[in-house]
TrEMBL record:
It comes from Panagrolaimus davidi. The active site is at 147 (charge relay system), 178 (charge relay system), 344 (charge relay system). Residues 539-732 form the MBTPS1 fourth domain. Residues 1-22 form the signal peptide. InterPro entries: MBTPS1_3rd, MBTPS1_4th, Peptidase_S8/S53_dom, Peptidase_S8/S53_dom_sf, Peptidase_S8_His-AS, Peptidase_S8_Ser-AS, Peptidase_S8_subtilisin-like, Peptidase_S8_subtilisin-rel. Keywords: Hydrolase, Protease, Serine protease, Signal. This is Peptidase S8/S53 domain-containing protein. Belongs to the peptidase S8 family. Residues 138-395 form the Peptidase S8/S53 domain. One of its GO terms (molecular function) is serine-type endopeptidase activity.
Length: 741
């Protein structure tokens, strides 16, 4: 476990980058409703001279204007006076990385085809054929495929109902094959790689260029077209770390609030946890993960938790569901079939399955994304392999089971996960991996609420906490937070659990329920969430570790440079640092060795530091408050608290050097600050006579019986006289970056 040792001397540094530099800005101007082109043009030109881009739809709720950076302030001032303009935001460029697809331009490899799943086999595995036999093949269901367009050779696409190009390429031709492949998985009629819902109607919306570039505004246009065309399902072909693209996010919610079901891949950034892609991580979107032929979570599949609730809160569970996404056959651009793996492949499998489901119910029941989520979850089968809920969501798609639940469906409120039980391991990881105890910081369950009654709902009265007396419920000390408005279709219930002091020697389980009343269109529905936790006697102080989560920035908005500078192929980092996400291995290692980890999302002055033997400060980005420094100092002196700092590199010259030109967007990216804020960390360490420097080293050294790979770490430049130091001969790697450009 190199991290364990690394933390003694080095800092993980990550630095973030922001898009800047460019003489003109593309600004999205959002209106409070849909207005005609003429009305909007008049409004804008009357107010400000700017280049206004034409929109493909007559009635739009936004415009894209190009303005010179120098004019930006004047522009905002002028715009702020117009009532019908809600907000302005920068148009963002999205780049999709399709590593595997480059190979895809080859013709299919017949000799290797036996390793792949063709559509017959998938249909068998997800038992779609049973529903086909009943006559449900997606008939009457309109699916918009947001992708790279479609091949010009369309003989195998019988039901293409519309084709639009929203990009600046001026045509809908797919030269890459991605759009063609995924559209084919849904509804092609090519032998061996026909679609799962062969009778559904395809609407091809090209939003990615053949260079895999897209912009927020193209997506907004395509979404508006979907609204206008009364599409049923959108399979969204974008996934990225950015959950802060406001116009995009509000459009996603507007789409689902209109009853359109959005299905999106959860991402191919696994196996690390905390790598969920947006918008698949949203409550109202169906986020799909991938499994392989052995029914294991595919290595590439991104996994939970959602991270933007950090640091004070806790993430929600995603993906929603998993299905086959490894080596699946779909149509290639050149005739014949080819195979592909990825959650991009699993998403259309779910899209096809949902089309089959929708085609089995009348039109007036089809516009309810919460219902579809509920029946998918209800039907799903937990994997027999030991994947946790943060990897498999409700489990593997079981189409006939979901079909059955859909046929007898009655509207309801449901929870995801539907309960929490500490005795169910590893499915309930990380909860089941660490029992709770008196004196600990609260454990948080952040539960998603689905409302099958309608788009909106409201939690009325305070939810009621009801401990089970016959299972030691009286030991629980529970605080609840929740979204009063459940909109669109979903909300949350956050349960903060502490154990009362009188249970500090108790060893056993404890359970309770929470009773919730949701009001929808004048009816009140009651629903119950149950949970059971495992309680142990409060561990010894020597076993207790405090993890400081409060110092972590929420990533993105910007991007962060990699911890390991030598990973040059992926210079940007966007994983939130948390013991249940990218520091899972460290967490497990500490747990296996008898330690208990408590996570603090608040300033350290809110916590009784004398309860812990160690505080972990991992890759901090925020400053310490003077009062916190004092509190740590006092706990070190009086209570034997040990401070363990993990970090990486920091060198201001290097930070300037690693800016790079993104050829795709023509914009310059550079780290805005020094990432892991070593100067801030030093302000804490200084009171103990330590400081980290700005020379960045790498190399290997022996520590005990291990060989440590020291990747990109800092030097120690100051230590007190009596400090015990380890010495190693390492290489300065900054010089490697000091050439070019
Ligand atoms: C912005 O507005 C001010 C006052 O209205 C004007 O003096 C200035 O020239 C404008 N700036 C630009 C760059 O147009
Ligand atoms: C086709 O697949 C087989 C088996 O996977 C492999 O050995 C062979 O090299 C492949 N041929 C081409 C042209 O890629
Ligand atoms: C729970 O999740 C919701 C939705 O992401 C978020 O708004 C809220 O802050 C979270 N609460 C906690 C306590 O984690
Ligand atoms: C479905 O969405 C995923 C990403 O979310 C994408 O990779 C795939 O291409 C999409 N499929 C279709 C048919 O658009
Ligand atoms: C599941 O099992 C594998 C191999 O047996 C193991 O490496 C992994 O840690 C287990 N996962 C969980 C969540 O227990
Ligand atoms: C708690 O009880 C379990 C058996 O139910 C036992 O294995 C465990 O050692 C006990 N733990 C403590 C700390 O007493
Ligand atoms: C802090 O914890 C210590 C040891 O756990 C305890 O003795 C002390 O009373 C606590 N202080 C406060 C203010 O709760
Ligand atoms: C950055 O690293 C280089 C190379 O090790 C070193 O010479 C320099 O002093 C460091 N600090 C700054 C601020 O450049
Ligand atoms: C250290 O690096 C070597 C290659 O340089 C690699 O083989 C080894 O697995 C690495 N060790 C760890 C613990 O990452």
């Amino acid at each position: 476990m190199p991290e364990m040792l690394k933390l003694i001397l080095l800092l993980l540094l990550i630095s973030f980058v922001n898009v800047v530099y460019s003489d003109t800005k593309d600004i999205i101007v959002s209106y409070n409703g849909y207005y005609s082109t003429k009305f909007r043009q008049n409004l804008l030109t009357k107010t400000f001279i700017a280049e206004i881009q034409a929109r493909p739809i007559e009635f739009s709720d936004f415009d894209l204007v190009k303005i010179e950076s120098g004019n930006f302030e004047n522009f905002t001032r002028a715009i702020s006076k117009i009532k019908v303009i809600l907000k302005i935001s920068e148009d963002k460029t999205h780049f999709r990385n399709l590593n595997e697809f480059k190979k895809g331009l080859l013709r299919p490899n017949k000799s290797s085809s036996k390793h792949y799943l063709d559509i017959r086999q998938i249909a068998d595995l997800i038992r779609a054929d049973r529903l086909w036999m009943k006559g449900f093949m997606g008939e009457g269901i309109d699916i918009a495929v947001f992708d790279t367009g479609i091949t010009r050779r369309r003989t195998f696409f019988k039901n293409v109902k519309s084709i639009y190009d929203f990009t600046n390429e001026g045509n809908s031709a797919d030269l890459i094959g991605h759009g063609t492949f995924v559209a084919g998985l849904i509804a092609s009629s090519r032998r061996r790689c026909s679609g799962i819902a062969p009778k559904s109607n395809l609407h091809i919306y090209k939003v990615f260029t053949n260079q895999q570039l897209s912009t927020t505004s193209w997506f907004l246009d395509a979404f508006n077209m979907a609204l206008q065309s009364k599409i049923h399902i959108i399979n969204l072909s974008i996934g990225g770390p950015d959950f802060t693209d406001e116009p995009f996010m509000s459009k996603v919610h507007e789409i689902t609030s209109n009853g359109i079901i959005i299905i999106s891949a959860i991402g191919n950034d696994g196996p690390v946890f905390g790598t969920l892609n947006n918008p698949a991580d949203q409550g109202d979107v169906i986020g799909v993960g991938g499994i392989n032929l052995e029914e294991k979570i595919a290595k590439f599949s991104s996994r939970g938790m959602t991270t933007w609730e950090l640091p004070e809160g806790y993430g929600r569970i995603k993906p929603d569901i998993v299905t086959y996404g490894s080596q699946i056959f779909g149509p290639s651009l050149y005739g014949g079939c080819r195979s592909l793996s990825g959650t991009s492949v699993a998403a259309p499998v779910i899209t096809g399955a949902v089309a089959i489901l929708l085609s089995s119910i009348p039109e007036e029941r089809r516009r309810n994304p919460a219902m579809i989520k509920q029946v998918l979850a209800e039907g799903a089968k937990k994997l027999e392999t030991n994947a946790s809920m943060f990897e498999q969501g409700s489990g593997k798609l079981d189409l006939p089971a979901s079909f059955y639940y859909l046929q007898k469906y009655l509207p309801k409120i449901s929870f995801f996960p539907s309960y929490i039980d500490y005795l169910e391991c590893p499915y309930m990881w990380p909860y089941c991996s660490q029992p709770i105890y008196a004196d600990a910081l609260p454990t948080i369950f952040n539960i998603t609420i689905f409302n099958g009654y309608g788009i909106g709902g409201e939690i009325i009265n305070e939810p009621i906490f009801e401990p089970f007396e016959d299972d030691n419920g009286a030991f629980l000390d529970v605080h609840l937070e929740y979204s009063q408005k459940i909109w669109p279709w979903s909300g949350y219930l956050a349960v903060f659990i502490k154990i009362k002091p009188e249970a500090s020697n108790f060893n056993g389980t404890s359970s309770a329920q929470i009773r919730l009343k949701v009001k929808t269109t004048n009816k009140i529905h009651e629903t119950i969430f149950k949970f059971r936790v495992k309680i142990i006697p409060t561990p010894l102080k020597s076993q207790r570790i405090l993890w400081d989560q409060f110092r972590q920035m929420r990533y993105p908005p910007g991007y962060f440079a990699r911890d390991n500078l030598e990973q040059k192929n992926s210079p940007l980092d966007w994983n939130a640092d948390h013991p249940h996400t990218n520091f899972k291995d460290l967490y497990e290692h500490l747990r296996e060795n008898g330690y208990f980890i408590e996570i603090s999302g608040y300033p350290l002055t809110c916590t009784n530091l004398s309860s812990y033997s160690m505080i972990f400060i991992v890759d901090p980005e925020e400053e310490y408050f003077p009062a916190e420094i004092k509190a740590i100092q006092k706990a070190v002196k009086n209570n034997n608290l040990n401070v363990i700092a993990f970090a990486d590199w920091f060198n201001s010259t290097l930070i300037k050097k690693i800016q790079f030109m993104d050829d795709n967007t023509g914009k310059l990216w550079f780290p805005e600050t020094g990432g892991c804020n070593i100067p801030a960390l030093n302000s804490l360490l200084n009171v103990f006579g330590f400081a980290f420097g700005d020379v960045i080293l790498n190399g290997k050294f022996e520590f005990g019986e291990s060989i440590i790979n020291f990747s990109s770490g800092s030097t120690l430049i100051k230590a007190p006289k009596n400090a015990k130091l380890g010495m190693a001969k390492l290489n300065d790697i900054v010089s490697l970056f000091f050439f070019c450009n």
